[in-house]
Amino acid sequence: MAKFSNSTILSKIGSSNQYMTPISNEIKKLITPVLNKSDTKEWAVTPTLSKWPLIKKDEIQEYTFKAKEEVIEELIDDFGSDNDYSPQKIKEGKWEGVILKIYDQPIKFLPNKKKEVIKGPNIDATTMTAIQELASAYIFREAIKNGADLTSVDKIRKHDSGKFYKEIKRIWMTVGKKYIKSDEDAELSITSGEWLENFYKQNVRLLQELKGEKFTMFTRGKTDGYQASWYDQTDTFMEWVSNQVKQFKISKKDNWNPADVWLIKNEQKHRDEIEEAMKGPTTSRRMGVVEANLNQFNEIFRQLFLQKQIMGISLKKVSGDVADWKEVNVTEKFFKHIESIEMKYMGAKCKFGPGVVTAKQAARSQRKNQLPTKAGYFTLETQETMITLKDTESNTEFEIQIKANDPGKFDNLKYEPKDLKNKTARLGKSTSAYVDDLVEYYGIRGWKRSYKDYPQSLATVFPFTKTEQDKYLGMITELKSEGVDIGNVTPLEAVINIRETFSRTSLPFVANSKLMQVNWLYNFLTLSTKNRNKMVTDMIFLAEKAGRRYGPYGKLY
After folding, report:
1. Do residues 279 and 148 share a domain?
2. Which of 88, 111, 134 delimits the end of a domain?
3. Cys staple from 406: which of 70, 303, 331, 411, with CB 3.0 to 4.6 Å?
4. Residue 433 pLDDT grade (very low, low, confident, very high; cuts 50, 70, 90)
5. How far apart are the C-alpha atoms of 183 and 170, rounded to whole Å?
């Protein structure tokens, strides 16, 4: 495996005379930030890097680039969800890597050496979330209520002559029984995931914030498969509060408050007080009354949080040496601060170039939609719209991804921001109903929030007629004039590609979602510069569930 410097790699781009100079320059711009992840500025490459692209039998072949483990890990974090590179995360034996597509040249990035790690059972995300939240609640209870010193991995393992750690493993075995078949499986999962490191760091930071407070209830809600004397699942606070927020037209608790665990004093007393305070006008469904009652509900919870009576905590796995703590929606000072922040809309990408259906997309479409879709069939190059914005005060850039809530079927849009400086720190989803409310709040009347209000086929259900095609041609033309990156196509070619994607042998729901995105973006860009900036700022805080309409919580991360 030969080694090549970054400059040598860049010099090879276009050497096979496949690209015009402008395209070669664009490819160099695309790969440069990827190459610069290497501290040594050198990559081990196979097969030998003689020309770019690597063509055999009229097909572009894959290069493999190798560097230090930490370089590859950083590369995956930074580019593993970036749609400019069509990323595909991979695992080859014990090697974790990613395939990035640099224009049309795929490159597999792998570590050239890998530290040995203990391989644990592969547990699905939903089950793992339930396990780690329940274990966190158990540890918080033992440390806060019973005064146990659980400030290191060793102390967690040895507490109460090992009985405490045995119960943690029982949480793994009962909640994760589909995957965890033995005590050894539980040990492997805990060790490989470095979960005890996470738990003690969370615990140390939380104890600093609570300063001797004594809570009586530690809960995450009902957890299938787990029963223990310390954990009452008969009528959990999580289920109770989830039912309470429904009166405010909030379908899911997480759309009000993202807290994963609750620390509570005198639970029944506070439940009774809250229910009594909310009696009467809550039966009204008039929006003004609903909003007023939600404000009252939130104020009650803020006071209880400040008094350390009921504290909801959002848990994120701790990746650094120490955990951080942030209080959200708790004080008037917090609200005034976020209300003073205004981010700047920087631009958008809504690409309409040609793409091909992947094997994964085809399988998913066949499963969900019974369409005769096959890998290699025509589709659009991307399924999403990306909006870029910047917090000029902190010089932080964000990106908001707009796409179908379920990309494998006809569905409404979701809005997911991410911090481009810290891509591992997930902001969450902006509540779709609230984003739709923002559209109306800022005076936009042309936006419709249901996918059923947009073309879904060529000839049957809501067909993409010539009239509709002309309408969207006008919209896309306007997007391009506003500086939106529509890909390497003209507005007319964009409409043709959408029409082609509506074929039953392709993915019609992709075209439907793209039209929704076009409509949303077109209407957004009718706003003044000031209101554009205000609206994207609001969307960032909606993702974090930060604002007066959301409940108070502490973020432990």
Report:
1. yes
2. 111
3. 411
4. confident
5. 8
In 3-state terms, what secondary structure has residue 74? helix
Rama region for 492: left / alpha / beta (φ>0; ψ in -120 to 50; rest)? alpha
281 vs 23 pLDDT, higher one: 23
Q: How many whole angstroms separate alpha carbon 293 and alpha carbon 299? A: 10
Q: Are 393 and 522 contained in the same domain?
A: yes
Span 23-55, pLDDT tens digits = 888 899 889 889 887 656 789 999 988 888 888
Q: Is 101 among the domain residues? A: yes
450 with 509, same domain? Answer: yes
In a domain, 553, yes or no: no
Could you read off the pLDDT of 492-548 as tens digits, one per residue?
Answer: 999 999 999 998 667 899 999 999 999 999 999 999 999 999 999 999 888 888 999
Residues 87 and 150 in one domain: no
105 and 186 inside one domain: no
Structural domain harbouring 459: 344-543
Instruction: Out of 294, 323, 352, pick the residue that ends a domain.
Output: 323
Rounded alpha-carbon distances, angstroms, from residue 376 to 102, 356, 379: 19, 5, 9
pLDDT per position as a tens digit, 297-345: 999 999 999 999 999 999 999 878 899 999 999 999 999 998 888 899 9
Q: Are residues 103 and 130 in the same domain?
A: no
Check: CB of residue 120 under 8 Å from CB of residue 173: no
Strands 310-315 and 217-219: unpaired
Please indicate, yes or no, whether residues 57 and 101 belong to a single structural domain of this protein: yes
Q: How far is CA 126 from CA 85, 116, 131, 176, 235, in A?
A: 28, 27, 9, 10, 22
* 251 residue type, one letter: S
Structural domain includes residue 332: no
- Give CA separation, 142 vs 16, 30, 234, in Å: 65, 51, 21
Whether 312 maps to a domain, the answer reads yes
Task: Show Cβ contacts of residue 375 under 8 Å, excluding neighbours closer than 6 positions.
Answer: 356, 357, 358, 359, 361, 362
Residue 388 has pLDDT above 90, yes or no: yes
Residue showing tokens 């080859």: 92
Residues 359 and 455 in one domain: yes
The three-class DSSP label of residue 206 is helix
The pLDDT tens digits for 160-211 are: 999 999 999 999 999 999 999 999 999 999 998 899 999 999 999 999 999 8
User: What's the domain count of the chain?
Assistant: 3
Q: Smallest Cα–Cα separation from 540: which of 351, 333, 349, 394?
A: 394
Q: Tell me, yes or no, if the pTM score tops 0.70.
A: no
Encoded amino acid at 25, one letter: N
In sequence order, the β-bridge partners of residue 557 are none
Q: Is the pLDDT of residue 79 over 80?
A: yes
